[in-house]
TrEMBL record:
SMART domains: SET
Biased composition (Acidic residues): 324-343
Gene3D superfamilies recorded: 1.10.220.160, 6.10.140.2220, SET domain
CDD domains recorded: SET_SMYD
InterPro entries for the chain: ASHR2-like, SET_dom, SET_dom_sf
Stretches the record annotates as Disordered: 323-359
SUPFAM superfamilies: SET domain (SSF82199)
Entries under Pfam families matching the protein: SET
Source species, domain of life: Eukaryota
Listed name of the protein: SET domain-containing protein
Length: 428
């Protein structure tokens, strides 16, 4: 993607190159709490479920349209299948409408995808692989298919952060990536794209390594509705504009999705809204995982999964904390990129700083953030942002981006207008 062309219709942000952070989205004007700054459609979506599901239950089970990922309520009795449209070839992939079926047959569920997934399902060695590996194979099939059905989107995928094609990509491929490449080579070599790609070479181990790196760094999880304290991902998507958001451990924006509730064809769009006001020139950041993760876990995840050492203001403060439990092995590892998954450990130590006034003061923005912008629902750990402003009026209704609960900002004593006192990002 040509980043110079990337802008929003309202000119809310611009793309900047920031040393040590790569491309970044920076406020091109002052932005207000609740303001929608981006609506982004996926160029690629794939199911978060392993290719070999766990043993089927006899009770009614949940499934998703394999095009729009809306929930399908299907009971095990065949009489209730009338509103579901299966793929005429494999019957395994289900769609919620003739429209989704038709759209998928010429895009995400092309004949090559249909045949490849059937061949892979017949492969006993894949059944023995981890859930992660079985989901990765879905991504690879979806990504190689994209080159065929939408070469321009495939080029966009290749332009996102992550390894470029080349010898060094081979050094980084994991054993499961090598296994998946060999498997696809032996069962279902992808057809070459209709137009040449910018880089040389088609269907190589290096390209597979590159694609897996793009997936790891840029994928957003579309969440299941939060229920009974459980959160999980139903699908993963690549959102080309949203992929430019860098991470901050105290983000100033957060993203929402409304897969089941949005009407129309754009239900898998993600919407990014400002959590609080920010001035022009400030970098706009998301948190790549729930903000309640403690310092060592955040540092580890960001280094291992995203390849950088976080030096945000919150990390600088928390690096000096000595009384935090830094080695809690029970802290959940979480799911995948930017999925707002659950965590059982709150990295807040302000109650245990023994009344040290200076530390309490520098910790205050954290405490304020947690009090004001973190959902209080049990095990949710979602982030709250105000509903969009109406005209000049800011909303005092806060929406949780995980459980969807709406709360009145007055309940926690805020007016929705002020900016955090901590400089929450690197300005461009
Ligand atoms: C989804 S991409 C974000 C956009 C990216 N900067 C780019 O140039 O395309 C994620 C990558 O951005 C970089 N990144 C994100 N947040 C960062 C931060 N706080 N500090 C340094 N690098 C960061 C890391 O290289 C990370 O793997």
């Amino acid at each position: 993607m040509n980043i110079k062309q990337m802008s929003t219709s309202g000119g809310e942000f611009r793309v900047a190159e920031i040393e040590g952070r790569g491309r970044a989205l920076v406020a091109a004007q002052s932005l207000r709490a609740g303001q929608i700054i981006l609506r982004d459609s996926p160029i690629l979506l794939y199911s978060a479920f392993p290719l070999f599901p766990c043993s089927a239950s006899s009770s009614p089970y949940k499934s998703y349209c394999d095009c729009c990922f809306r929930t399908l309520q299907i009971s095990s009795s065949s009489s209730s299948l009338s509103s579901v449209y299966p793929c005429p070839e494999c019957s395994l992939h289900l769609f919620c409408s003739p429209k989704c079926l038709t759209a998928a047959l010429s895009s995400s569920h092309s004949p090559w995808v249909c045949k490849s997934l059937c061949l892979l399902r017949d492969c006993p060695s894949l059944r023995q692989q981890t859930v992660e590996c079985q989901v990765q194979v879905r991504f690879l099939i979806a990504a190689y298919n994209l080159a065929h059905v939408s070469p321009s989107h495939f080029k966009t995928l290749l332009s996102l952060q992550g390894l470029g094609l080349g010898l060094n990509s081979l050094d980084s491929i994991t054993p499961s990536g090598q296994y998946l490449h060999s498997l696809i080579s032996s069962l279902c070599i992808p057809p070459p794209p209709p137009i040449p790609l910018p880089q040389e070479g088609w269907f190589s181990m290096a390209l597979t390594a590159t694609l897996l790196a793009k997936d790891k760094l840029n994928t957003f999880g579309l969440m299941e509705p939060f229920s009974e304290g459980q959160r999980s991902v139903r699908a993963y998507g690549i959102y080309p504009k949203a992929s430019f958001f860098n991470h901050d451990c105290l983000p100033n924006a957060c993203r929402f999705d409304y897969v089941d509730t949005a009407t129309g064809p754009c239900n898998t769009d993600i919407i990014v809204r400002m959590i609080h006001d920010v001035p022009q020139g400030r970098e706009i950041c998301l948190s790549y995982f729930p903000v309640n993760e403690n310092y060592p876990n955040r540092q580890r995840r960001l280094l291992e999964d995203y390849g950088f050492t976080c030096q945000c203001d919150r990390c600088k403060v928390e690096a000096n904390w000595s009384d935090i439990d830094n080695d809690d092995p029970d802290v959940e590892q979480g799911e995948e990129f930017m999925d707002e998954d659950t965590d059982e450990h709150m990295g807040v130590a302000s109650e245990s700083d023994d009344g040290d006034g200076a530390q309490a003061e520098s910790d205050f923005p954290h405490a304020y953030f947690f009090l004001r912008y973190m959902c209080s629902r049990n095990n949710c750990w979602g982030t709250l942002a105000p509903l969009p402003p109406t005209g000049d009026s800011l909303s005092n209704i806060m929406e949780c981006n995980v459980c969807g609960d709406l709360s009145n900002d007055a309940d926690i004593g805020g007016d929705g207008q002020d900016e955090l006192s901590m400089d929450d990002s690197a300005a461009a």
